[in-house]
Design a protein that fits this description.
By secondary structure, the chain is an alpha/beta fold. The protein is built from eight helices and seven strands; from the N terminus they run H-E-H-E-H-E-H-E-H-H-E-H-E-E-H. Helix 2 runs parallel beside helix 3, helix 3 packs parallel to helix 4 and helix 4 runs parallel beside helix 6.
């Protein structure tokens, strides 16, 4: 990681609060719509996969903003459904010398594929972060994702990443399906992953009534700097202290009402 690039990330975030930059310093790029899971709360799997940009085409996109880009999220769909995802992410690193943070989310459906990508991306100049999605304790998670064994594979993915020294987290999107199961999910993780802490960078319940819009996809930052839109996620990492921060006014009201006690 580069301290110079980290400083640029902070400076660009602060400047963007005052005036619009000429080029984006943070991008969230959906590189595929493909996903093998059939999540109740997500409609991406219902849309046609369509034509995907090739690695060379994505490389041109990254090069067009390369000097200005500090923060990149690569998302989907499930990014590892692309056999060339590792090469695509490496193209971003090569084209963006000022990149301070590279993140991608995964459902952990294919632990081996995620591990292979992580090995390919290690040692770059950017901070590298992976978030593994969870929707509840094992039975609920597997049911909501329409995929038996999905919880166990997600945990296996986390273990593999941590064994490589990759900064990795479990992330839970709060919805009508999941909001009552945060503590049960935490307990299930405590059984599966001894020693971890719970942090909430941004918490906001997203409506899941029929016709409700799909939640925006972006990784929440602990500082909030530069996040274009807040995604409601609770995240768990792998150390032992227990902390919980809820930063949105909506979450604070619900905490006072005892919703998440």
């Amino acid at each position: 990681m580069s301290l110079v690039n980290d400083a640029r990330l902070v400076a660009r975030g602060l400047r963007s609060a005052v005036s619009a930059p000429a080029l984006p310093w943070k991008l969230t790029c959906a590189v595929t719509w493909r996903c093998a899971q059939r999540c109740t709360h997500c409609r991406i799997w219902r849309r046609p996969a369509g034509d995907e940009l090739t690695v060379a085409q994505w490389a041109r996109v990254f090069a067009s903003v390369g000097p200005a880009l500090s923060w990149l999220d690569l998302t989907g769909g499930e990014v590892t459904s692309r056999a060339d995802f590792g090469a695509l992410a490496r193209a971003a690193l090569d084209a963006c010398p000022s990149l301070a943070l590279l993140h991608f989310p995964t459902n952990g459906e294919n632990p081996g594929a995620v591990e292979a990508v992580a090995r390919e991306l290690q040692g770059g100049h950017a901070r590298f972060v992976v978030s593994i999605s969870l929707d509840g304790p094992p039975q609920l998670h597997d049911r909501l994702r329409g995929d038996p064994g999905a919880f166990d594979r997600a945990v296996d993915t986390w273990r593999r990443l941590r064994s490589l020294g990759v900064e990795s987290y479990f992330g839970m999107t709060l919805s009508d399906y999941t909001v009552a199961h945060v503590d049960a999910t935490r307990a299930a993780l405590a059984d599966a992953v001894p020693g971890f802490r719970r942090t909430t960078s941004r918490t906001r319940r997203w409506p899941t009534a029929p016709g409700a819009p799909h939640p925006p996809t972006s990784w929440p930052s602990s500082s909030g700097a530069g996040a274009s839109r807040a995604t409601p996620r609770t995240s768990w990492s792998g150390s032992t202290s227990a902390t919980c921060r809820r930063t949105s006014a909506l979450a604070a009201r619900r905490c006072r009402a005892g919703r998440w006690r």
